[in-house]
Amino acid sequence: MVSDTLCQDFNAPDPPGPGIDPRSYPVVKNLKLVSMPFQNRTRKLGYVLIGLAALGYPKVAGAELDAASLQQRSALDPPVQSRATEAPSGDPAAAVPGGLVELGPGPDLQPSDGAATESFSQPIPLFPVRDNAEVRRFLEYFQTGYRRAVVERWIERSGRYAEMIQGVLRAKGLPEDLMFTAMIESGFNPVAVSRAGAKGLWQFMAPTARQYGLRVDRWVDERLDPEKSTVAAARYLRDLYTTFGSWELAKAAYNAGEMKVMRAMTALGSRDFWDLTRGQILKDETKNYVPAIQAATIIGREPERYGFASSQSGPVPYEIAPVPQGMQLASVAALAGVSLETLRELNPELSRKQTPPGGSYNLKFPIGTSQRFMEARYRDHKVAKIGKPEIHVVRSRETIGSIAKRYGISTAALARWNALDERARVRPGDRLRITASN
Q1: 402 lies in which domain range?
Q2: Is position 311 within any domain?
Q3: What is the pLDDT of residues 371-389, one digit of tens each?
Q4: pTM score
């Protein structure tokens, strides 16, 4: 459900914390990603690259995501060390040139397999966080009033997706801390929907989702598939970093669009995101978006340091099996012996609660249930083929249940073969298929 997503988590009234103006918080409801056609987007991206080159930007074209290149930028990105001056182990945090203290892996969220607590593996490349008033403001904001309970929910949900997201980011050579972008985007709610129509963990708009390989149509919306949308988000963030050479600018562009960030850079003659926040081109939502992610990163890496419980949830294991086109999830659930709610939760991308046309569809099942589905479907198919006509003409007072009983088949099978609900009414003269289609 989306009732406690990021779109609504911060709507309830609450007295502001000390020195915090709740109106300044970036409630990410109207996320606007670039939604232009691919040809226009490509041409405008070219304009971005030309403009960046004119500004002397060093990371345009062929940028490498390595630790050395980020360390060269470290003087601009000192991390927050609020409320504590020691590393989680109790040893002083290691100082690096430029006054930075790198945020090493701490006793963070539970691993997604639900085993003993483990740290996140060291992100590569390094991911410095700015130590400034904006980040500290959000660090306090997330711990104040009712917002604390909201962040607690975010951390709890994160355990289900952390291992998967980190694995995708590592495979793409990206910092694992980018997973906390999803914390601000959706609160780790895979079915979150904004008023602007952005959906999923990463709040993709449909045009950008399609550009990055996600299927979005009347049957399937892969923005709601946690794994596929994470792969798309990783590719998009990598492209933005390659363009701007800065994770702060890349995140700003993720929220506002590349062209808006480019205009702000040109107007202010700066490549530093924090300089751009003093101008008028970027909206307040974008100005707050980046420090909010950095504050979420600090809390997410070490929740217990800030009074939050580590996530105790883990991923729901599943298996995949092909299901014929046009099958209602209710029928699949009945054959597999699982609840419809469980099947829908595993396959939220199916917009019409049935498998799409165009061939079999790889459906997610709870572990151990796909074989049960295959066996039950085979039995229905076999029974229906023995000694029965292909079509039954409904007579007066007959129901789907009575017809199924007459032919020795299940009500669910009869309803499925005729694209009906098991409780649907049939009328005299209706023609029902009573054998499975080949």
Answers
A1: 318-433
A2: no
A3: 999 988 877 655 544 445 6
A4: 0.64
